Each structure stands twice: as C-alpha cells, then as structure tokens.
Amino acid sequence: MLKEAVYHRPKNNFAYAYDNKTLHIRLRAKKGDLKKVFLIYGDPYQWTKDGWTNFTKPMTLEGSDELFDYWFAEVKPEFRRLRYGFELYSNTESAVFGERGFVDRDPRDSSFYFCFPFLNPIDVFKAPEWVKTTVWYQIFPERFANGNPELNPEGTLPWGSQDPEPDTFFGGDFEGIIENIDHLVKLGITGIYFTPIFKAATNHKYDTIDYMEIDPQFGDKETFKQLVEVCHKNGIRVMLDAVFNHSGFYFDAFQDVLEKQEKSNYKDWFHLKEFPVQAFPEPNYDTFAFTHMMPKLNTEHPEVKEYLLNVAKYWIEEFDIDGWRLDVANEVDHEFWRGFRKTVKAIKPDAYILGEIWHDSMPWLQGDQFDAVMNYPFTNASLDFFAKDKINAEELAHQLTNVLMSYPKNVNEVAFNLLGSHDTPRVLTVCDENIDKLKLLFLFQLSFIGTPCIYYGDEIGLTGENDPGCRKCMNWDEEEQNLELFHTVQKLISLRKEYAAFRNEGKFTFLETNADTNHIIYSKQSAGETIIITINNSADKLGVTIPYDFTGKSPVDLWNNKPLRETSKVELSPYGFAIIQLKN
Predict the structure, then answer these.
(1) Residue in 175, 322, 356, 529 annotated catalytic
(2) Is the pLDDT of residue 53 over 90?
(3) For residues 489 and 500, what is the distance between their CA atoms, to the nearest angstrom?
(4) Cys-Cys link to 184, which of 115, 189, 377, 571 (CB 3.0-4.6 A)?
(5) What confidence category does residue 49 fall into, taking pLDDT thresholds of 50, 70 and 90?
(6) 179 assigned to active site
(7) Segment 528-534 mean pLDDT
(8) Helices in 234-383 by DSSP H: which ranges?
(9) Mean pLDDT over each residue of the chain, to the nearest integer
C-alpha cells in the first residue's frame, strides 16, 4: 500500500455538504493500489471507547485519472455532524486512516478521525436550480445582427462584407437580436450570455466608459428592456458581462486622474505607480495584461466598491437580468466578490454568478463568491480529443475525471461548459472543418455534467481563427448555413430537455475508453433511467460491445427513436455515435 499517495482533507472537494442533509466524502489513493475502501463514521458525541459501535460503509470507485483513484461515499448523519475515517485494503495489507495518520486497526477514539463539525445549511453551496437545465448561447452583440442601421457608428462596414479586423464595426445591435429571437427559440436555447453592452470605444466593449449607460450603437435602455422582456417571454434567461477588474481608458474617473494627476479625487481608484500618470511609452499604472487602454480598478477602495456594487444592483433592479458573467474574475480580490454576491443575491436570490477563470477555481467556489466558472479545462480536454487528436480516449477520461474530482458534485452540476468563445478560435476551425467531429463535440458537451454554452454561429458552421477571426458576422443566409449541423444541435438540445439522465440529473460514468480504437462509452444515470452513449472518434467503422448488462432492460435507440433487440453490440460509422436509453 502506497500510503504517501493516500489523501483526504475535510472540506472543499473532499468532504462537503451536497444539500442540507447529505455529506459527500472522497478519498484519493494511488491508481490501482486499493482494492476495497470502507468509510468508518459516527457521531462525535456517541463515539466512545467503551460501548459505541461506529458504522462502516463501502466506498465506490468514483473515477480514475492518470495517477490516482478516487473513492466516494454519501452519508446522511442523523445529527448533522460527523467523525469519520477510512479502512483501506490493498492486495497485501490493510490500514485505518484518519486525521492523525495511519494505524493497523480502528483505535475506537473519535479524536483520531477527521471531523465535519456541523452541517450548517447556510454553508451549503447553493446555485440557482434553473441553471442545471439551461442551454446557453453566447452573443457578441456587434456581430449578431444589424436591426437598425441608423445606430451604426461612423465607418460601419456592410454586414459580413469582409473578415473582421480588431477595429472594424458592422453595426450589430439589440433590434437585430430581437428580430432574430426565433432562431434561438427554434434551436432550443434557454439562456443568452451577452459580452459587454455598456458604453465603450471599441467593438468588443471590454474598455468601459460608462457602466450605467448602454453603448449607443446597440440602442437605448428602452430597447434593452424590450430585449429582456422578449427573451423572458420566450423562456430565455439573460446574463450580462461585468468588467470590474479594469475600466476603459476613457472612463471619467481615469480621465480625471490624467487631467488633475495627484490632485484628482479618483487617484486612489486605480493602481498608480507614480506621478505624473502616463500611458506612454509604457503605462506607469497597473492594467489588464499590459494594455494601456484598460487601467486596473482598485476594488479594495470603498468608493470603487460602492460604485461597482451599485452597477450590479442597477441592471438587475431596472432590467430584470438573470445573471452576471465576471470578466478577469481571478484578478479581483476575494472580499469584493463576497460583497458582490451578497448584493446580487439580496436583490435576486436565483441570479447566476459566473466567473471567468481558466484554472483551478476551488477558492472561488465555496458558496461565498461564485456559482460557477467558465469550464475551460473541459473545453481543452474535449478539443484535444475530438478536434485536434492530441490525446487518446484514455487520456480524455483521465483529464475529465480530474476535472470532476476537483470540485464538489453540486459545483460540477452548474459548471459553464463551452467549446468556443470570443476569446478562442471557432470550434469548426479547430476541427479542421470536419463537421462530423463538431457533431461529436456537441453531443459530448450537451450530455456532460454542467450547463452548456454555444457560441453564436457555431450551430450553423461559422469558421474563424483566434480574435478577431472568431468574431465574424452571423450569417443569416440559409443557403450558406449548414442546416444539417443546425438540426443535429437542435435534436441534441431536445434530448437534453426531454430526458433527465441526458442532462444534469444523470450520474456521469466512463464505462470504457479505448486508446487503440479511440472510442469512448459513458453512461448517464438518473433515478428512472440510464442512457449509454458510445462515440467513435475515428475515420474507421467500428463494432463495439457495450460493457453493460442489458438483460430485461428493453433498450431504445434515442437518436433514431426505435426499440432495439436486447443486444449490447453497436455498429458505428466513422465519427459515428449511438445513444441508448434503458429504463431502470
């Protein structure tokens, strides 16, 4: 037994409250080392040396990555408190593991064990329930549709007349979105994430001039209110983008600093290194990256904090938006985000708070800051397997298991799973324009744990390299759209809506991953059904035997909507898939 690899920590992703009555416990061990694991547990005030017999419960192997196995158990402590440890068995020895380390046998002493002091409901991670069933659609407003040419900025180009450049404008606006809302309804979208809509100098609007005003090229506040109402009438939630890490160069407070220097009342709103403050030859103030046009805000300053929290309140109170996506969220102090959450949730308890973080995000996901982060580890693993052929099926399972084990289950259920965005190359371009590969990506995304997001135009086959290429105008000419791809995505979304196991309510398990044939088989299991999905990520035909007992299950081919004979054998075309439903 390799004891050095055994790891547990009470709290975070290894011991957490899933709901007001249930605790989830995880243990990490060297891959393949432990053959059986039992959870030893009991109430700390009943666990005595003399007469109390503590409980044991077998733990299940929840998943494995390249180096480790992860064992799991769920318990509902009667008095909402727990002392617990682990009974470990390898092929050659056994041990008991607790907070004080390893011993040969149960010491029958509660102080030896790990402690979950009390399950306080206020400490339970709670994200909005509606997010679990939402399918998002990201819109870059400048490039979705031009509904009112009278709003066009000076120098606006004809719609889609050329590939975008960093400083080009095509005149996308709110009226264009309203006019095309039927496209989203037809697809099955139930949430829109808008990149910034506030007054700014650029086409991307991440350089805010005024957080309380709509950029005039998009319309006015009445039009935006109409847009939100139209979305809500069609069952679509609305999430805006908050750029609170930095302002734009032409933000009034920063312009005041440039004009008045150390006499400015706003000099402490920013991270200034010296006076005079200047942008050239290089900025002597902190910025986003090294962009002089985006001075970093001092979110620890009381006036800055008050101003930004008022912004967060205003757009919810006045326009009934449903969530905030937080740009460069990891570079803003945690205390600000705690205040942000309290402010937002006090107004709209079921508002969704989504942070843009590209790395391990556990510090932000403990119930006091964000509801979710943008799940780029999912993105990277999925693209590397399906689109780029950089990793094989086993490596995909390892990477995604590591992602799932990095967070509590109730965090994973609302993770924001994207394939592409305004910051990345178009997913079809990453697939080398192989539509079949893109279909597999959509299948995997829409059946994985979390809330999926489709970047505008990906559903009709838009292409483009990284920014600015990924920000092309939406193509509204149906003769130039890939309608077969659209209907595939539409059908996948309908399956997600119809079948509980297909969407977030299903337990996700890799049943088989084959590095030689590059196929994967995974199951999604809910209380009433199991759905098994087999994917052939290769250019060869493939016959696969599904490692699952089909006896008496009456399998149904969900994709073709027909019953199957009781067989576990499926024949897959190149880049083909099978979706099989089994009633529990």
Answers:
(1) 356
(2) no
(3) 18
(4) 189
(5) low
(6) no
(7) 93
(8) 252-260, 302-319, 334-347, 376-382
(9) 96
Indicate whether 51 pLDDT > 60: no
Give pLDDT tens digits for 441-473. Answer: 999 999 999 999 999 999 999 999 999 999 999
Phi, psi for 491 (deg, rounded to 5): -70, -40
Tokens 């920013």 -> residue: 270
What are the residues facing 523 on neighbouring strands?
509, 532
Helices and strands in the chain, H and E counts = 12, 28
Look at residue 583 in the predicted model and tell me its pLDDT. Answer: 83
DSSP code at position 181: H
* DSSP 3-state of 287: strand
Q: Helices 435-447 and 483-498, interaxial angle, to 10°?
A: 20
Distance, CA of 128 to CA of 352 (rounded, Å): 6
309-318: long-range contacts (C-beta < 8 A, 24 or more apart)?
309/339, 309/340, 309/343, 311/211, 311/212, 311/242, 311/244, 312/242, 312/340, 312/343, 312/344, 313/343, 313/344, 313/347, 314/212, 315/240, 316/344, 316/347, 316/348, 316/351, 317/347, 318/221, 318/225
* Residues 6 or more apart whose Cβ sits within 8 Å of residue 7: 14, 27, 28, 29
Would you call 286 a catalytic residue per the annotation? Answer: no
Going across the sheet that includes 136-139, the strands are 372-373, 352-355, 323-326, 237-242, 191-194, 136-139, 451-455, 416-418
DSSP 296: B
Q: CA–CA separation, 285 vs 257, rounded Å? A: 11
Nearest-angstrom CA–CA distance, 172 and 142: 4
Q: Is the pLDDT of residue 486 over 60?
A: yes
State both tokens at 497: 């809506």
In the chain, the largest separation of any two C-alpha atoms, in whole Å, equals 85
The tens digit of pLDDT for each residue in 247-265 reads: 999 999 999 999 999 999 9
Q: What is the pLDDT of residues 159-168, one digit of tens each?
A: 999 999 999 9
How many Cβ atoms sit within 10 Å of the Cβ of residue 479?
Answer: 6
pLDDT in tens, 100-153: 999 999 888 889 999 999 999 999 999 999 999 999 999 999 999 999 999 999
Terminal CA-CA length for the chain: 37
3-state secondary structure of 291: coil
Kindly name the residue from 142, 241, 327, 512 that is annotated as catalytic. 327
d(CA 224, CA 173): 10
What is d(CA 277, CA 383) in angstroms, rounded to the nearest whole number? 43
**Nearest-angstrom CA–CA distance, 210 and 216:** 11
